[in-house]
Known about the structure:
By secondary structure, the protein is an alpha+beta fold. It is built from 11 helices and 9 strands. Helix 7 packs antiparallel against helix 10. The two termini are 37 Å apart. A hairpin with a 2-residue loop joins strand 8 (268-269) and strand 9.
Amino acid sequence: xxxxxxxxxxxxxADIEEDLRATLRGLLADRCAWQDVLARVDTGEPYxxxxxxxxxxxxxxxxxxxxxxxxxxxxxAREAAVALEELGRSVAPIPFLASAILATTAxxxxxxxxxxxxxxxxIAAGTAVGTLAVPATMWPTADFPLSxxxxxxxxxxxxxxxxxxxxxxxxxxxxxxxxxxDGAPQLALVDxxxxxxxxxxxxxLDATRPVxxxxxxxxxAVVIADAGTAPAALRAALTAGAALLASEQxxxxxxxLEEAIGYLRTRHQFGRPIGSYQAxxxxxxxxxxxxxxxxxxxxxxxxxxxxxxxxTPVAAALAQSYCADVAVHAAEDCVQLHGGIGFTWEHPAxxxxxxxxxxALLLGTADRHRTALAELxxxxxx
Length: 382
């Protein structure tokens, strides 16, 4: 007797997801127009604290993935993916990926404890920003990091070491730190105000998503995952981050294409809109086709993650293998289809290019994920 075929998850958006999209898009249109983002970049202050308060506290999106028992929404990766699509479209300068996705998923994957539960409650309430203290370029199948070591002290740990290129390193109130104690991997929770912790912001291509270096000198911490659960919890967080980052990349690509099409329709040359020229129409059509495929890939990754599917690692690797390249391609074409104005600082095209190119390095490059995908589906090496 043959076993039934596995159920294929729906890639359509549910009504509640469309409602979430409409609400968040309206807020971002009022509070996060590209002119506002560009003005903030000019000031050198990357975070929009007022916008973060509106998104995290007023809308409650900081706790989307936090279980209801800890004050969160108890939503799934599907809703988080929609939120990331909209935040990507607006290139929103808030630490949503670091706190609401990476830190939250890592904490949720750890065993229950008073310290962990309190941290989830603070993140859900929007009163604390969390981050996962790993290099932003770390991919899900990478080895457990060894850059931070811990020594037992008064029932906790004292952490020593440094971690580079950490998302929201200069903003986080709670740090989930992979640490090695006597050769054993663990996860520890560090308060952002702990003594001995030094943060240094790093200058990067995308000023709307800062990263920085964390230096720890005998910093007090509490163990939240031991050697039995820490590697799996870290991998779960990185896999969720990679899967959902694809939705943000989808949002960037869609917005870049919309900007380009709007320009092709309104810019006239030789008495006709430049969008009427066949070569430009074909480029826009090819982009639309790529983005449609990107949407299906990102939606499948979010659906697999939401359903707890065993195919989640495959879906995440596939999404990053494809969506990262599409976002970069769409953003670059947006610049080129705008002609000379697309290369100016006063036009938003460069914001999409920077977000797309920096995101292509986050949580593993497309090549890293293609290699992982080949291993996951048992393809022989080239």
